[in-house]
Design goal:
9-stranded mixed sheet; hydrolase; triacylglycerol lipase activity
Length: about 300
């Protein structure tokens, strides 16, 4: 796995597809790794002629860890975020956007299409706003503007996200624990096949496991606050995809994001929760393709 120094830290990355095609930077979400992107999605972009760049965010996968910052107290951080008290964070989402820019610098890529999922969507939003000259288009999937007052996770989704694995959990117990979390937040209309879900989790666990990094990323999200003013600065073509049944980042968050980006195209998918189920990969690819090749449809809301 190639590792490159970008923005002053080591970042693990992988490239594939046509080096002469449109560059597409994929930015994953909370605690996820570059291998968390479904291969059907990556291969679909490659088949469209794209040059695909995936990477591990800081504090995940094989990229730099910030263990020296310690593990934050998540319940206390959650209470502070609810009442609007300042949070002490090892870094912010803007630092993670700078990591992505640094990776493009190191790879000598001047501009890229951005596709971000969940926290990755937040990072991509910041990138598109702060580095418009480096951005060709923005696709923000199951993400949010971070505006105060938007609905939060359901009780079940919050409990699943905050619940740690059993003390001393071994591989199979970790897989069981994480599979249960994904079942809670996943797409009710497009359930992930059990074997595929467990295989993906096992692959991620065997590659890297960093619960402290997940906690630090979670606090970074809360500490980064409201991106609404920043979203108004985005000038590149933008696509917002959101699940109508997302229990972790409710659909109102996706609708709000689209409203705050001039000309953004919003697609709400019925039956979709907070994941990238294989049944929806062709639909994702179809929605994104016009943004990669400048054949963008008018503003629309699709069910």
């Amino acid at each position: 796995m190639p590792i490159i120094t970008a923005n002053g830290i080591n970042i693990a990355y992988e490239t594939s597809g046509n080096p002469d095609g449109p560059p597409v930077l994929l930015i994953m979400g909370l605690g996820m790794q570059l291998v968390s992107w479904p291969m059907e999605f990556v291969q679909g972009l490659e088949q469209q002629g794209c040059f695909v760049i995936r990477f591990d965010n800081r504090d995940s996968g094989l990229s730099a860890k910030f263990d020296v910052a310690g593990v934050p107290n998540l319940p206390l951080s959650y209470v502070k975020s609810l009442v609007g008290w300042p949070l002490r964070s090892a870094y912010l989402l803007s630092d993670m956007a700078a990591d992505a820019r640094g990776l493009l610098d190191a790879l000598d890529i001047q501009q890229a299409h951005l596709i971000g999922a969940s926290m990755g969507g937040m990072i991509a939003q910041i990138f598109a706003a702060q580095y418009p000259q480096r951005t060709l288009s923005l696709t923000s999937i199951m993400s949010s503007s971070g505006r105060r007052g938007l609905p939060g996770p359901t009780r079940a989704a919050r409990r699943a996200l905050m619940q740690p694995p059993p003390p001393g959990a071994q591989r199979d117990q970790l897989i069981d624990h994480m599979a249960q979390t994904f079942r809670v937040i996943g797409s009710p209309g497009f359930p992930m096949p059990e074997k595929l879900l467990r295989d993906r989790i096992a692959m991620s666990i065997e590659r890297s496991l960093c619960p402290g990094g997940v906690a630090r990323q979670l606090v970074a999200i809360a500490a980064s606050g409201d991106r609404s003013p920043l979203l108004q600065q985005i000038i590149r073509p933008s696509l917002i995809i959101h699940g109508a049944q997302d229990p972790l980042v409710p659909v109102a968050c996706g609708i709000d994001t689209a409203k705050r980006i001039t000309g953004a195209v919003l697609h709400v998918i019925d039956g979709m929760g907070h994941d990238l189920p294989p049944q929806l990969i062709p639909r994702f690819l179809g929605l994104i393709k016009p943004f990669l090749f400048d054949k963008i449809a008018p503003h629309a809301v699709a069910g």
